[in-house]
Q: What sequence folds into this?
């Protein structure tokens, strides 16, 4: 079960390494109260293509700078109120603008800066597609210069120009290049695009959503990404035009309504939700910023750390076919399940409610024993044991002592409470080959620790034929009736060191301690 990233024994650092980086940038901003944008369906514009910009010089007036402000949740557990900056361009004279989903989705305030004015216009989100990384924004203008889509085939070597406002600079920028690849992979951790071009125009953060145009001012692609190798990518006109038209018409655009990306950690994969678009399917089912979507329609998603599978499932179910969704919510340590496109909003999954499990443990009748046990593993699958199922909270981690690293797991009705005091029962098992070399006598290891909150009882030898060592018994811990056992064992070959720590408050907990020892095995011994 997923847990927070810190406790008093260890701190885990998270590094996100991406081969591709979205080319929009965002910077921290002071807290601001904002209202959510309205997602609307707009009638198809009557603007004709003949009125569109027809030369490179006039492209400037059709390109806009966009800032989007909102609160975004990150896997590190941090929440930021951010102002992101991107680019966009008018596709109609009455105010419809194309940009990227990752520039505006989930923002509370969208502002658009047009040529010739230092005062921004408020943008209204018409719709998005996270899979195509496209969005349409509407502003209140008339007779704006606008761009038309190119109708010519895309050809390698064709000269193109990238227009926009890189790095959030209010100064318009136009960079030349060529199309270097007609069809590149569009599967990334934040999108899954059918048709993508690769080009040589320099792409910097803030360029996202800007047009890639010919010298005649026709749009051949929408800029959306660049990487550390200097390669740049655009959403081809073949895909962009179709998706934008469907957004305007209110049709299926492969949009659940999140701003997020495929995410992987030691527990598995999923789609991280940084923010949610108001009144979207994601919002209506109850998704929140900071959620991790783990399953769609009963299938694991993002196993290749891209949105390809996620988008394939959306394609088969949106706009209105119901499908199951499963979510891990780090904020309360629970799994949720619900049904998108239905009235079944997210609820805590049965068997994953840690609060309920803790309550059931507290209500265990005096003298009653635990009836059900669950098989527990450490993070590296070096050891397993059975613990009471009511101890439903788990934390797998690595612990370092004396320069030696152990793979460990803690299980309790409430791991945080177990770590911090003596109010709940629980067990922690750690395994290390390095400690086996440092402490050939397990008693020497236990001598390193003294539990000042407890009174020392006695040291007892232990040998079950597979593992031998000693355990120290401590009593009256924290001024309560809690007992604590600190156990140190070696396997028969002396290659693996096992440290166990147990807190017991009742006779049922003492019985559970015995059950854990009886079921404790190194994986190598089970395989043997």
A:
């Amino acid at each position: 079960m997923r847990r927070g990233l810190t406790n008093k024994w260890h701190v885990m650092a998270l590094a996100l390494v991406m081969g591709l980086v979205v080319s929009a940038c965002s910077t921290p901003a002071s807290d601001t109260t904002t209202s959510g944008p309205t997602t609307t369906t707009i009638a198809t514009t009557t603007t004709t293509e003949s009125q569109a910009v027809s030369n490179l010089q006039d492209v400037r007036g059709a390109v806009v700078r966009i800032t989007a402000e909102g609160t975004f949740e990150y896997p590190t557990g941090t929440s930021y109120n951010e102002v992101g900056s991107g680019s966009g361009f008018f596709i109609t004279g009455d105010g419809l603008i194309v940009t990227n989903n990752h520039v505006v989705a989930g923002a509370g305030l969208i502002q658009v800066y047009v040529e010739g004015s230092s005062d921004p216009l408020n943008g209204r989100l018409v719709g998005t597609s996270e899979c195509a990384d496209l969005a349409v924004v509407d502003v209140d203008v008339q007779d704006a210069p606008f761009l038309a889509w190119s109708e010519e085939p895309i050809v390698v070597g064709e000269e193109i120009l990238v227009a926009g406002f890189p790095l959030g600079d209010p100064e318009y920028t136009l960079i030349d290049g060529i199309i270097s690849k007609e069809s590149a992979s569009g599967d990334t951790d934040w999108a899954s695009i059918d048709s993508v071009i690769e080009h040589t125009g320099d792409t910097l953060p803030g360029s996202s959503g800007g047009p890639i145009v010919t010298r005649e001012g026709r749009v051949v692609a929408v800029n959306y990404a660049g990487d550390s190798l200097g390669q740049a990518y655009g959403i081809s006109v073949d895909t962009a035009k179709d998706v934008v038209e469907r957004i305007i018409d209110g049709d299926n655009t492969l949009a659940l309504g999140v701003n997020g990306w495929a995410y992987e950690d030691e527990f598995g994969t999923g789609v991280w939700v940084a923010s949610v678009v108001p009144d979207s399917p994601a919002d209506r089912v109850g998704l929140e910023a900071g959620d991790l979507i783990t399953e769609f329609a009963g299938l694991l998603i993002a196993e290749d750390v891209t949105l390809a599978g996620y988008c394939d499932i959306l394609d088969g179910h949106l706009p209105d076919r119901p499908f199951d969704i499963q979510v891990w919510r780090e904020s309360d340590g629970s799994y949720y399940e619900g049904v998108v496109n239905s009235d079944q909003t997210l609820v805590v999954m049965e068997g994953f409610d840690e609060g309920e499990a803790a309550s059931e443990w507290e209500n265990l009748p005096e003298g009653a024993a635990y009836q059900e046990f669950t098989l527990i593993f450490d993070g590296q699958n070096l050891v397993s044991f059975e613990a009471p199922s009511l101890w439903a909270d788990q934390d797998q981690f690595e612990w370092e002592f004396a320069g030696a690293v152990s793979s460990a797991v803690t299980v309790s009705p409430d791991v945080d409470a177990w770590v911090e005091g003596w109010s709940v029962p629980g067990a922690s098992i750690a395994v290390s080959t390095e400690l086996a070399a440092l402490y050939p006598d397990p008693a020497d290891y236990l001598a390193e620790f003294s539990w000042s909150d407890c009174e020392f009882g006695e040291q007892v030898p232990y040998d079950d034929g597979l593992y031998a060592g000693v355990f120290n018994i401590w009593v009256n811990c924290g001024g309560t009736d809690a007992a604590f056992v600190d156990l140190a064992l070696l396997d028969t070959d002396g290659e693996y060191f096992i440290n166990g720590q147990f807190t017991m408050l009742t006779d049922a907990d003492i019985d559970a301690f015995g059950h854990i020892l009886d079921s404790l095995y190194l994986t190598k011994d089970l395989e043997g």
Summary: The first strand starts at residue 20 and ends at 22. The longest helix spans residues 237-249. The domain at 368-527 is CATH 3.40.1000.10 (Protein Transport Mog1p; Chain A). The chain has two domains: 21-352, 368-527.
